[in-house]
Design goal:
Elements: H1 6-13, H2 17-24, H3 32-45, H4 51-58, E1 63-71, H5 72-75, H6 79-94, E2 98-104, H7 110-120, E3 125-129, H8 137-144, E4 148-151, E5 161-165, H9 167-180, E6 186-190, H10 196-211, E7 220-222, H11 227-237, E8 244-247, H12 250-262, E9 272-277, E10 290-293, H13 296-312, E11 320-323, E12 326-328
Parallel strand pairs: 1-2, 1-3, 3-4, 4-5, 5-11, 6-7, 6-8, 8-9, 9-10
Antiparallel strand pairs: 10-12
Length: about 350
């Protein structure tokens, strides 16, 4: 099919080229009659504006970036990012915006790649996944006055637009679940303490235990999100004879279950296991893993929509969106499953 230009659209609609341009670019100084005629021709012909020309007219690229400050080599081992990208892609498609993914070959590349993103003029704004406290990525973006939204809870020293799951209440939910099942010697495998998600999940779990009148004592260890770290942490906790454990991520929980099994113990008979994320398929663990599920795809979707609002309204006041998690009850804590 031949690609039409603005003059041809105008001729078919009986209006000038400049009128077609104003309609295509969403300007308001066009009569309703002219707008309807132009839109009818666009709908009939399947016309799509030339991206470069539209960018020049609107001073926008129609592209937003998703910046993931983790080494690319480890990124695709984590189902979290796949779900996040899926939600962000769905939302960007719905608003006819291109989503560009920016990855780091090595975590040390953050400053140089962020500077390139800012200086390139390729994007109208970016979504940044929060990794560690005190990162400089958002500082670069602020100085460049490039709109951005953080996925996760920003460092307390920052004032930013953000979207996140409620990590604190989700971990509190895990503590309450173990208490309701009569577990009295809980242990904790916390996520990294240099991340806001790790801080919030640790705090929420300990608050939940305190409300239940339970003391965790020295039954705590820290992992780094991975199965291997979960296994190592669980091995260090076994001498303290816990009857349950909250692992701050699904992958750490899988490692913890392996350590329990290799020690000749049984889950959930000897040690109940509950995790956070709800991202791994239930049939990948035996028994099936009870987990606090965060709505990752919805976080990605809402981050895109919030970024669009910020781009459209630069004077918009900072906004934080927090989405509730859900407890998926399966067999790893010793109760009948109520979730698939």
């Amino acid at each position: 099919m031949q690609r039409l230009n603005l003059e041809e659209i105008g001729r078919l609609a009986g209006v000038s080229r400049s009128t077609v341009s104003r309609v295509v670019n969403g300007e308001t100084n066009v009569s309703e009659d002219a707008k309807k005629r132009v839109q009818a021709v666009i709908d009939e012909t399947g016309y799509r504006p030339h991206a470069a020309a539209r960018s020049l007219a609107s001073n926008r690229t129609g592209v937003i970036g998703l910046v993931i400050p983790s080494a690319a080599a480890t990124l695709f081992d984590d189902p979290y990012f796949g779900r996040l990208i899926l939600g962000a892609t769905s939302a960007s498609n719905s608003i006819e915006t291109t989503l560009a993914l920016f990855l780091f070959e090595e975590e040390a590349d953050q400053d140089s790649l962020t500077a390139k993103i800012v200086g390139s003029g390729l994007v109208d704004g970016v979504i940044v996944t929060a990794a560690e406290i005190g990162e400089s990525i958002t500082d670069h973006l602020r100085r460049a006055r490039l709109p951005f939204v953080v996925v996760g809870r920003p460092d307390d020293s920052q004032t930013a637009f953000s979207v996140d799951a409620d990590n604190r209440s989700g971990a509190h939910m895990a503590a309450a679940h173990l208490h309701q099942l009569g577990r009295t010697r809980p242990a904790l495998i916390a996520p990294p303490s240099n991340t806001t998600a790790g801080i919030d999940r640790r705090s929420g779990f300990l608050e939940g235990l305190a409300e239940a009148g339970l003391d965790i004592g020295d039954r705590t260890a820290e992992g780094n999100w991975t199965e291997a770290s979960g296994q190592t942490a669980m091995e260090s906790l076994l001498p303290h004879q816990p009857d349950s454990v909250f692992a701050g991520s699904d992958r750490m929980a899988v490692g913890a279950m392996r350590a329990i099994r290799e020690a000749g113990l049984a889950c959930p008979r000897d040690i109940a296991v509950v995790s956070f994320d709800g991202l791994i398929p239930a049939d990948q663990t035996s028994p099936r893993l009870t987990s606090v599920a965060q709505p990752v795809a919805e976080v990605g979707r809402q981050a895109v929509m919030l970024l669009k609002a910020v781009i459209d309204n630069p004077a918009m006041a900072p906004q934080r969106i927090v989405l509730p998690p859900t407890l998926l009850v399966r067999e790893s804590c010793g109760t009948e499953a109520t979730s698939p």
